[in-house]
Write a structure and sequence with these properties.
Layout lengths: L1 H22 L5 E3 L3 H26 L3 H12 L4 H4 L1 H5 L4 H27 L2 H21 E3 L1
Parallel strand pairs: 1-2
The structure holds heme C.
The site of heme C has 19 residues, from α2, α6, α7 and β2.
Amino acid sequence: MRKALAAPLLFSGLLGLPLTLAAEEDSRVAVDLPAMMQTHMLGNMRDHLAAIQEIQERLAAGEYDAAGEIAETRLGMSSLARHGASHMAGFMPKGMQQAGTAMHQSASRFAVIAQEAAVTRDLPRALGALGQVTAQCVACHAAYRLK
Ligand code: HEC
């Protein structure tokens, strides 16, 4: 009896997920970057995520200066040259460029707030500023994808 009930439930669970996903339109703007630039950009992205993780670990350890340093050099305005941002910007729609700039600026703001937190030990404020950075990741990902 148990088995007989479980089977259809399992099936509807398995089938339901892809059906829901398929029904959702992907309304993100598809951006056509040359292949090498795509590879480069996705490499940058994976480093962005790694940087966020390292920042969280530094914050958890109370090492605010180190957290700020990672943010500024890997995500902040100082990271633009390293990311080849000026080469790539020309291939991106205006809104995407702006989202990128907003992310770099918010990372630099976080770096300053992290330095302040090294003195004030204000972890909630530092976390709030980090949330402003990841909000920019979320905003750009919601609006754009690669072709
Ligand atoms: C200016 C826009 C923009 C910003 C800002 C941005 N991303 Fe992305 N990211 C993209 C796009 C576009 C893709 C490709 C998504 C797709 O094609 O579905 C991507 C892909 C990724 C990927 C997947 C990489 C892979 O190898 O496939 C990761 C991880 C990622 N982003 C992390 C981040 C993190 C973390 C941040 C913030 C610190 C961030 N991104 C900020 C646009 C952005």
